[in-house]
């Protein structure tokens, strides 16, 4: 589902619109994930160096889980957070102000916004914002958000994939524009002749017959006559030597 896969106003307004489908004017047609992306913990723990959603980088994530462990030091507080898909350590630096933090209790649900980090070769989360869940409906809502974002990102990914594939097919069509409308067998013969265009006299009929499959041999002469009549190939030294136009 996921690839090897700023806070201020964005975190405060996270109702829908998780994916920004607009194009980045500085990057052509590339897509960016700018808003907060709801995830499950396994998406963090199974990700590679860069967290991506269907090939698009994700910068800020939010997830819901149970607090299973709390550790405090002089500089930070670490929390072991668990959901149905796994567990991860999330930490926050102790505030330099006396602004009160909402109480976080063991075995209670919390919602976290943060950045993916790695410490001692282990994935963790730098907490940007953390609060206890008001009611369990928020947990259900989070699961629905994860499903929505996954389907939305997959749709964008597939559209981009189809667009690139169509562009690739268009390139092939343009390259082979002079053989459009031919059958597969006629194209094969044309290609064999075209490969010998650098030779002064092109390719000779008997040599051509050694370059195609045996099941095509009974039709070679008819195919050559057709290609000549349509102007795709022409004879050179003799009526048995051919080049493509």
Topology summary:
Elements: H1 7-12, E1 20-23, E2 31-32, E3 37-38, H2 41-45, E4 52-53, E5 56-57, E6 61-72, E7 76-83, E8 86-93, E9 109-119, E10 122-132, H3 137-175, H4 184-194, E11 203-204, H5 205-210, H6 220-229, E12 233-235, E13 241-244
Parallel strand pairs: 3-6, 8-10
Antiparallel strand pairs: 1-2, 4-5, 6-7, 6-9, 7-8, 9-10, 11-13, 12-13
Helix pairs in contact: 4-6
Keywords:
5-stranded mixed barrel, 29% strand, 6 helices, disordered N terminus, rod-shaped, alpha+beta, 245 residues
In short:
Helix content is 31%, strand content 29%. The protein has 245 residues and is α+β, with helices and mostly antiparallel strands.
